[in-house]
């Protein structure tokens, strides 16, 4: 591709800076909060209307029966496709439209899309509505430049990535939307920083542990069997034995940040005794159940069965050693670690585009947490998939989340140039 064509493409994207900001703000103002899955259809249709006006063919796919799907909160996905001048490969940009709840601590309205100091603030600005906007502007710029290409371009807005992706990319992958011959290369605009190519993620195993007990009067706890105390014993063993072992496990995966290059375990939630939503004073009762959800992130060098066995071993030891101890263990979700080949076509194309646009080499990284690549690889069997987009990973899910405007412009230029390379445009 000639230098003149590249320069014209980059200039067109730069000239659409204000439009890129406006599109990001419009997306932020659609509060697609998950849970429960608010206004997914509104956001999908907003994206669909814009792309249909540019000549894309649309499909809306509801993931009926997926977790959380209902007539009140339908899991609505949009897929837009436009064909090139002759047959060829397909480049697909996939962005999740759902965002986590705003939470506390904001100094700006989280759903206003406030612009200040060269940034757009709002829930989802970084993760990942700024990335969705950048991918749309990138593809529109290619079409407006009239650069001939073979194959096809696709953009999808999908749901529920923040809660596992089963109603979004997971559902579409089962239907063949992320498999060859329909799609060849996938770029997910997650916020991994504008000069990074994310080639995969660590593994994840979520499980719910329930310790069992027996109800008794709180003034005579010796007549009961306290499930909360049993869970305390589980926590003690995890804290004193398992977590130190995990800290010693290191990976060759280029995981960022540095602290995630080891195995980790987080306690997501713990509930025991009487419900917290009661009114008035509690009654004096020994709790007969306590539940804890754990989030175990593991490395590509680890055996998934060994990861589970670490927890089962602690629980079985306590069952033998602790009078009255009993438990149930339920798997919530599990995804294997994944890494795209470092020299895969989509990796090479995006790295070369980063060098051209930013004037510095790209950095290959692996995400500490999973994202929708897991479904594309596992269900769609499509390995030429990466995450690349604007935004700082550490800002995701934080109060006063933002995305830099310069980063969005640069990432759109990278996306456009990489797309043309993958489609063989000349």
UniProtKB/TrEMBL annotation:
Protein name: Succinyl-diaminopimelate desuccinylase
Lineage: Bacteria, Pseudomonadati, Pseudomonadota, Alphaproteobacteria, Rhodospirillales
Keyword Zinc appears in the UniProt entry: yes
Cofactor(s) it depends on: Co(2+); Zn(2+)
Gene3D superfamilies found in the cross-reference section: 3.30.70.360, Zn peptidases
Keywords, alphabetical: Cobalt, Hydrolase, Metal-binding, Zinc
Entries under Pfam families matching the protein: M20_dimer (PF07687), Peptidase_M20 (PF01546)
Family: Belongs to the peptidase M20A family.
Enzyme Commission (EC) number: 3.5.1.18
GO molecular function, one term: succinyl-diaminopimelate desuccinylase activity
Peptidase M20 dimerisation domain: residues covered: 199-318
């Amino acid at each position: 591709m000639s230098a003149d064509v590249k320069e014209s493409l980059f200039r067109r994207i730069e000239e659409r800076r204000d439009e890129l900001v406006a599109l990001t703000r419009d997306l932020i103002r659609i509060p697609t909060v998950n849970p429960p899955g608010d206004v997914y259809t509104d956001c999908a249709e907003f994206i669909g209307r814009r792309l249909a006006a540019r000549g894309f063919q649309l499909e809306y796919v509801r993931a009926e029966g997926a977790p959380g799907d209902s007539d009140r909160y339908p899991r609505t996905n949009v897929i837009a496709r436009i064909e090139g001048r002759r047959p060829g490969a397909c480049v697909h940009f996939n962005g999740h439209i759902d965002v986590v709840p705003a939470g506390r601590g904001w100094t700006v309205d989280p759903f206003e899309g406030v612009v200040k100091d060269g940034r757009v603030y709002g829930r989802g600005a970084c993760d990942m509505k700024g990335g969705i906007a950048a991918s749309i502007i990138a593809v529109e710029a290619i079409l407006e430049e009239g650069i001939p290409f073979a194959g096809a371009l696709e953009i999808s807005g999908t749901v529920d990535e923040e809660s596992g992706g089963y109603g979004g990319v997971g559902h579409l992958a089962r239907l063949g939307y992320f498999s060859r011959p329909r799609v060849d290369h996938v770029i997910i605009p997650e916020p991994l920083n504008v000069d990074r190519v994310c080639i995969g993620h660590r593994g994840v195993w979520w499980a719910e542990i329930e310790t069992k007990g027996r109800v008794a009067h709180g003034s005579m706890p010796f007549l009961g069997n306290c499930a909360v105390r049993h869970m305390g014993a589980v926590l003690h063993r995890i804290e004193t034995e398992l977590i130190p072992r995990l800290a010693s496990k290191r990976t060759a995966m280029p995981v960022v940040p540095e602290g995630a290059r080891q195995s980790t375990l987080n306690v997501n939630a713990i509930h025991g005794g009487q419900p917290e939503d009661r009114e008035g004073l509690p009654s004096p009762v020994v709790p007969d159940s306590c539940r804890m959800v754990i989030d175990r992130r593991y490395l590509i060098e680890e055996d998934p069965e060994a990861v589970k066995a670490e927890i089962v071993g602690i629980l079985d030891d306590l069952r033998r050693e602790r009078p009255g101890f009993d438990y149930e263990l339920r798997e919530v979700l599990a995804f294997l670690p994944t890494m795209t080949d470092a020299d895969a076509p989509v990796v090479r194309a995006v790295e070369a585009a980063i060098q051209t646009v930013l004037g510095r080499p790209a950095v290959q990284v692996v995400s500490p947490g999973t994202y929708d690549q897991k479904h594309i690889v596992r269900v769609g069997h499509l390995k030429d998939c990466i995450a690349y987009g604007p935004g700082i990973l550490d800002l995701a899910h934080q109060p006063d989340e933002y995305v830099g405007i310069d980063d969005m412009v640069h990432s759109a230029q990278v996306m456009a140039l990489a797309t043309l390379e993958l489609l063989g445009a000349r």
